[in-house]
Design goal:
The structure holds two protein chains of two kinds. Chain A is mainly α. Chain A is built from nine helices and two strands. Chain A has one domain. Chain A has a two-stranded antiparallel ribbon. Chain B is an all-alpha fold. Chain B has one domain. In chain B, helix 2 packs antiparallel against helix 3. The longest helix of chain B has about 30 residues. The chains are: A mainly alpha, B mainly alpha. At the A-B interface, helix 4 and helix 9 of A face helix 2 of B.
Amino acid sequence: MNLNEENPPMAHTHTVNYSILGVPGAVLSYLVPGLGQIIQGRISKGLLFFFCINGLFYYGLALGQWKNVYLPHANNLPPMSLPLNQKVPNCLSYRLQYVGQFWVGISAWPAIYQHFNYDEDSDPPPDPYLGKYQRTPPETELNLLQNRSDRSWDLGWVYTVIAGVLNIMVIYDALMGPVMLIPEKQKPQPPKDLN
Amino acid sequence: MEQVIIPIIASGYYWHLPFLILVISLVYSATRHDDWRIISIEAYRWGMRMLSFLGMIGIFLYLVTLIP
C-alpha cells in the first residue's frame, strides 16, 4: 500500500502550494507574524498569529516599561567567546535576549537601528523619529529598573523572547505547512517476515 | 486571628501568566494543525498541561515555605 497515495499524512484543510508560496510566506511571516499565512489564504490563522505574537511581544515590552528590547554596544566590557573559541560580538554576548527577540520581525528592528546610529556611552540625543524607543538605557537606569521594580522588567523580556521563539514556529508553518503527526493507523507497517 | 496571604495573590506578576499560557498553547497548536476544531482541542490540552505543571511547581514551592 502506498501511504502517500491513499492516506496523505499532510491532508490540509486549505490546499497551499508550499513550493511556490512557502518561501515568500516564510519571509513575510518573519517580517510581520502571520502575514505569510494570510497571503497563503489561511487568513484566520494568520490573524491569530498576528494578534497573539504581537500581543505577547508588546505586552512584554510594556511590562518592561518599553526598555527591555535593545542591542547594547558594550564597548567597555571584555569580549566573550564560545566553547570552541569562536568570538561573539559584544552586542549579542551581553544581550543574548535579543537573539530570541530578533525573530519577532520588524517590531524588533528599531533596536538594530538605534544600535548602529547611536552609542549609548556618549549620551546621544533622541532620534527624530524613534526617540529613545528600543535604545540601550543608561547603566544607572537599568540598575534602577532591575532593583526597584517588582521583577516585571525581567518578566517582560521573557515575554518578548518567547514571542520571538514562537514566531520561528510560525515561520516554519508558513514555509512547510503545519507539522502534523501521522496518526497511528496511517503509519507504514514494517514488512512481515516471510520465513 | 492571623491573616494568611496566599503567595500567588500577594505577588502581582503571577497574574500575567494566563495570557502567556493562552498565547503559547494557541500558537503552538495552530502551527501543528489547520483545522480549527483540532487547534482548539489541542490548545485546551496544552493549556491544561502547562497550567497543571506550573501549578504543581507552585504548590511545591508553597509547601517549602511552610517548612519552619
